[in-house]
Design goal:
This protein has about 450 residues and is mostly helical. The protein is about 65% helix and about 0% strand. The protein has a two-stranded antiparallel sheet.
């Protein structure tokens, strides 16, 4: 049997790697090689610190990484991976195995932390898990718009902000409780999703992304400048906390601990917030998966694959786009309402474009249309970065490197298997996205 021979053009590969290393040297010379610090014992005197070993390591890493990437692309173009693709033409659905495991882990995690670290030691980790679940919910909401309907939305943080400010303002001016404000915040966010949907009905691709990005910035600027209503850059503070069926998490009589005969602990409120966002996230997942199997869900997927063919089948693309924007925005509003009550303070600085970029990166890295992929990406990106907060200087470099590696290794995300929404056989298996051309799944 003939073995395929792969010849590398090493001269081209080395030149390409050297060029990438040169660009990295020009950038890393300022970002990593030099650092301004305050001299100890000299008052406020500044001095310049040279970090040439770190600079050299970064340049070498870029050179080696670019060379390995060139070799990988050469192997792929020569057909070395074709046999593997054919042997894996039908893969078992990964989500079917991971869902029960992740669900069990999510419910057991706070109790395991309390048992091992105690109330004081586990608090920061439960807080971190709550933050991760918030981004999981946001990722699942955006997945409706980007993953299922194929509409690139760069301004999703606007709906997050609308939900947060809706809850804060309704609670401040009308004294509404969290349980009343939560559905109202989702409805208001969905309303703004429809408002955004109308101007972009005829737009696609880059033009759609630019308009949604502009919408997100408009909302932030309005919140920043409408001082009399939103508090402007000062934000809104003393936002009411949620209660457990009317029981406040306070010390003394009438509180949650007193009603159940428990010793008061501030961890009770932390646990309540954790399970609250967990339930909200599971509701988001349940509704999304149910809608995906309904005609509207199949219309979203048809719109994602080919809008012209979708219209030729008689599907109303206007309603299809508007429902995707409205439902995605609604879940973003729910998450924003929870964010406001958890933080107790919100300001426009919490809803910048970077938040939209992070949420979109979670959806893309996890795999467009994959619910469990969003969970994995959120845990890695949000949880991982928070655990290594002391390396804040390098967080964005690691973020960019992670994006490059995933896009090269898994262009369709970590979980790229396509699970059919509707199948004639109950035993239908997911099909690997490697066998599907881009945009025609």
């Amino acid at each position: 049997m003939e073995q395929s021979q792969t010849s590398f053009n090493w001269e081209t590969l080395l030149k390409d790697a050297a060029l990438a290393a040169l660009i990295a040297a020009l950038l890393a010379g300022v970002m990593l090689g030099l650092r301004v610090d305050v001299a100890s014992g000299r008052g406020a005197e500044l001095y310049l610190e040279y970090r040439w070993p770190l600079f050299g390591a970064a340049v070498v890493a870029v050179f080696v990484g670019r060379l390995l990437m060139g070799v990988y692309y050469a192997l792929r173009e020569s057909g070395q991976f074709e046999a593997r693709k054919k042997n894996k033409s039908e893969r078992q659905n990964v989500e079917g195995y991971l869902k029960p495991l992740f669900l069990l882990l999510a419910f057991a995690l706070p109790f395991v932390l309390l048992a091992t670290l105690g109330a004081r030691g586990s608090r920061q980790y439960i807080d971190l898990a709550t933050l991760v679940l918030t981004y999981v919910m946001l990722g699942w909401g955006l997945n409706i718009v980007v993953g299922l309907a194929g509409l690139l939305d760069l301004g999703y943080v606007a709906f997050y902000a609308v939900g947060a400010y809706s809850y804060a303002l309704l609670a401040q001016y009308f004294g509404f409780s969290f349980w009343i404000c939560l559905p109202l915040a989702g409805i208001l966010a969905a309303f703004w999703g429809i408002i955004l949907g109308f101007p972009v009905l005829r737009l696609r691709g880059d033009y759609l992304a630019i308009v949604t990005l502009a919408f997100g910035e408009i909302i932030r600027v309005v919140l920043l400048n409408w001082y009399e209503f939103t508090g402007g850059p000062d934000g809104i503070s003393r936002i009411p906390r949620p209660s457990f069926f009317g029981l406040e998490f306070k010390r003394g009589e009438g509180g949650f601990a007193d009603f159940f005969g428990l010793d008061y602990s501030s961890v009770h409120r932390i646990l309540f917030l954790y399970f609250l966002i967990l339930i909200l996230a599971l509701i988001t997942n349940f509704v999304t998966m149910r809608l995906r199997r309904l005609p509207i869900g199949r219309a979203w997927e048809a719109l994602r694959e080919d809008e012209i063919a979708c219209r030729s089948l008689g599907i109303n693309t206007t309603n299809t786009k508007l429902t995707a924007f409205a439902l995605g925005a609604m879940f973003g509003g729910f998450a924003g309402s929870f964010f406001a009550t958890r933080q107790g303070f919100i300001s426009p600085e919490s809803f910048t474009f970077m938040e939209s970029a992070v949420i979109l990166a979670i959806v893309v890295l996890g795999g467009l249309g994959s619910q469990i992929g969003v969970v994995i990406a959120a845990v890695v990106m949000i949880g991982g970065f928070e655990l290594f907060r002391e390396f804040e200087e390098y967080r964005m470099l690691v973020f960019g490197l992670l994006m490059v590696v995933i896009m090269v290794w898994k262009p369709r995300g970590l979980i790229s298997t396509r699970a059919p929404s509707v199948a004639l056989s109950k035993n239908a298996k997911g099909i690997s996205a490697d066998l599907v051309e881009e945009g025609h799944g």
